[in-house]
Amino acid sequence: MTKMLRKRVIYCLLVLLPLVVLLPGCGGTSDHRVAITIGELTDLTGPASPAIIPLHWALQDMVRYYNEEELIPGVRFRMVSWDTRYDVSRDIPGYDWVRGRGAKLIVAVPPPTPVTLKPFADRDKFPICSLSTTEAMMDPPGWIFCFSNSHYRMMKTFLKWIHDVDWDYPDGKIPKIGLVGWDEAAIHDDDRALKEYASAHPDHIEYVGARIKPFGSIGWIAEVEALKNCDYIEAKGFPMGAFIKEFQSKGYKTRFFDVGTASSYRGFLVDQLGWAALDGVLTPNMSLMWNEDVPVVNFAKTLLYRYHSKAEAEKAIYAGLAYVGGVKNLVGVFEIIEAAIKTVGAENFSPKAFYDEAVKYKTKSPLWQGQPEWSFSETKRYLADHIATYKFDASAKDLVWVGGWVPLVLE
Fold first, then answer.
1. pTM for the complete prediction?
2. Residues 331, 215: one domain?
């Protein structure tokens, strides 16, 4: 082989190599079905990854299941994923990257991501299916569709539940509630809900305020001392375990909770603290846990054991809500895609086709049995209208549902 020929061969390999690497991620197909690409923006290596990686599995498994079973005739799904590392500076590059690879819609998981991308999605008329929900994603209603509860609305509903069910007001005592965590959109929604609820219902709760630290901060000694006399404390998100550990090491007692998050960090928290330390911790959300016998939970189990080893499946179940809750949310996403394809045809599926079906979507399929009917509308951008509150139960070594479905408090 001449020197020049060797150079040409090497050049060709260098050009082709990126394409070969991309093929598995793009879900390359050799059949004649129409390929529809779903983009994913998620945290695979950052601080939220312990709770979020099972959600990534859920999307992968849904794509694979729909393809293998050919549930939408003539369609094959592809998936392209971008690791945000829970770093908002990576959200816009990720948005451009997945769209550049043909994505017709995006599934976004970390709460900050849809907030960052909302002006771009609304400008480009490009749908983002958010698996987390904050008020900033939905106001004004646009191209962000939230498949879970708003933290703001969940918090108000949970506070009413505390008054109606959980606190017995001994000698007329009003419970003191505090909030602690990293500076991010969800905690500010919770803070606003607490302030508004306490102002409107001073006989229900006393809000002592929030202790919000810069994202990524460690060390909670000052915050523990500031909140030590609270009857309830929301320790929000990833820092929850470290705060509880510091709080309990001082001998202080309270009722911990985390709206919409702790159920997905179950395994992470148990590994950090043990069941005894977590006993009684409350976690309201919109999804049912693995121990509920309803169609969507059983479907999630089927997918998990079909595409993962027994060890991996048990690890995902131990981790908490993420996989089963993700499957539940993604059922809605795929049902909207299917409805759009029935309306316009696979060849004409587009971001606009998805949007047109999403605004009239209702949870009516058999997979939603055992749950209330929820919907989007022309102005409503959150799907779920109820919460299910779970508690960490040390005797059961599981999360146990406390009561039934509770309608959202909207005022």
1. 0.87
2. no
